[in-house]
Structures are given as C-alpha cells and as structure tokens.
Specification:
- 38% of the residues lie in helices and 12% in strands.
- By secondary structure, it is an alpha/beta fold.
- The protein has one domain: Spore Coat Polysaccharide Biosynthesis Protein SpsA, Chain A, CATH 3.90.550.
- The chain has a four-stranded mixed sheet with strand order 3-5-4-6, sandwiched between helices. It has a two-stranded parallel sheet with strand order 1-2.
- Strand 1, helix 2 and strand 2 form a beta-alpha-beta unit.
- Helix 1 crosses helix 4.
- The relative contact order is 0.15.
Length: 208
C-alpha cells in the first residue's frame, strides 16, 4: 500500500488529498476483512504510512511493515523474502485497492493454489495488470507489478512453477485507479460505500 499522502494520485482531478486518503483507507479495510476470513497464518501490510493506517491494521490483527525498498517490486521482494523464510513458504499477495473483494474471492485463490502448491494469478479487469498472486511453496520469482505485469508474471511463473492457474472474479479484477472507476465502484458496491465520498456523482466529489 502506498503512503496515504500519495494514494490514488491519478484521482487528484476529482478528489482532494483528504478524500483520496479516506478512499485508500476504506479499501484497505475491505481487503483486510476479506483476507482474515481465510484465517491466514500471518497477515502483513507492506507500506501504508499515514494517519489511520495503523488502527485499521491492528483491528484485523495484521502487522505493518514499513516499505522496505525503493519502489513497489523492490519492497515486495524484500518483504516476501523475510516473511517466507528459508523454506520459501507459500505466499498470497493482494493489492490494497480491491474495494469489492470478499472472503469468497480470497478462498477461490487459495483453493486454486491447492494449499500453496500451485502458482495462481488474478488478472486486473483491463487484462494487462495483476491484482493478486499466490507464490507457491519452494518457488521464487522476482515480482513484476506495474503496467502490463500480467504477461510478465505468466512467463515467470510458467518457467518457475509446475502449474499456473488464473482466477478471474469481480472482486479480484476490479481496482480503483482512474476517475471512471469511481462510477463503476458506485454501481458494483452499491450500499457499502462511504456516503461522504460517494453520495454524489464522481465528477462532483472533492469540488465542494
């Protein structure tokens, strides 16, 4: 998770910094809630410096690891190396901005991984990005999150793992990066959104 002061910068045209931080915290809370429903051995949030983050993390029994690297993939590389240990335990990686994620979505990832023995990729809605991964036991790859990451992750896991499975579900596919995503968010998660942020049209948010 990015620091809340830098969260969702591509929404700055329609959301002020306070609103973007609130949106990021709301989505983090949703992701942690879904993740805890699978009873993970441990749950860690990488990055996420800012007001309100530590309280949400503590509420779900998770650990906060300050961003240890220079950029996203460097930080994830360092974090997963520490968390997986010498035996390279299986590891589930979830983006922190999946507002429609549910426990069923996370369980679908874990089921597809066959208890961490199979590599699993969850593509983003655009068919180019990656929103979640299961790195199987004993397998190490250098993560490639960012633009067009799906193709790179497919290639890396195909080389390193015996089997690679893709899981496509709404809760896993849909993230929020662009202004048009806010309207989709209102349609897809109706009734569960922070009223202060999404009570009006997306184009009006932050202008009052």
């Amino acid at each position: 998770m990015k620091a809340t002061a830098r969260a969702k910068s591509r929404l700055r045209r329609i959301l002020d910094p306070k609103a973007r931080a609130e949106l990021a915290l709301w989505m983090l809370n949703r992701v942690l809630k879904a993740a805890t429903e699978t009873h993970p051995r441990s749950l860690t949030v990488v990055g996420g410096h800012g007001d309100g983050v530590s309280g949400i993390i503590a509420a779900w029994g998770a650990r906060l690891m300050p961003e240890p690297g220079r950029h996203l993939n460097d930080s994830l590389e360092r974090a997963t190396r520490e968390l997986r240990g010498p035996a390279l335990a299986p590891c589930l990686i979830l983006a922190a901005d999946l507002p429609c994620l549910t426990g069923k979505d996370v369980r679908a990832l874990m089921a597809a991984s066959e208890d961490g023995r199979v590599a699993v990729i969850a593509p983003a809605l655009d068919g180019r990005g990656t929103n979640a991964l299961v790195v199987p036991e004993g397998v190490h790859v250098r993560l490639q999150f960012g633009p067009d990451s799906l193709t790179r992750h497919r290639r890396l896991f195909s080389r390193a793992a015996r089997q690679v499975v893709e899981v496509r579900r709404l809760g896993l596919e849909f993230d929020v990066d662009l202004p048009e995503h806010l309207d989709l968010l209102r349609q897809r998660c109706s009734g569960e959104l922070p009223a202060r942020l999404f009570g009006r049209g997306a184009s009006e948010v932050g202008s009052a």
